Amino acid sequence: MVESETEAASRRADLRICLVVSRFNEPVTGSMEKAALDCLATEGVDAANVDVVHVPGAWELPLGVRLALAKGNYDGVVALGCVIRGETPHFEYVSMGATVGLQELTRESGVPIGFGLLTTDDAAQAVARAGGDKGNKGEEATLAVLEMCDLAARLR
Fold it and tell me: CA-to-CA distance for 79 and 111, rounded, in angstroms?
């Protein structure tokens, strides 16, 4: 069955979406959050159906998403964070821990979770991917969640 654009837009208005956003590296994650919210509005998601929760950093993203999912009623969640490489291996541990945690939650929950975690070598790369010349990962992760919500609706 092929869904019309009107049917898709109507269904998207009713989607319940949660953004889980890291406060660490806030200039970057704040830009990603704004892009995600703008994207949801552009794609027809009712702002009353969108919740935003903040967690301290990228390491806390998986637990923040788990807590949001436990609250229930979300059709999709977008996780937004930024880890910038430093002088120690801390970058690898935080990046991998957050990535694996979000991946496991996606499989366990069956709820689309947008992966908006930037892992960059420096601040300039992060800025470029949060609204600079490389686009905005917040928007990209949100579009991916909406596409997966559309797919889930079609397959139900």
Answer: 12
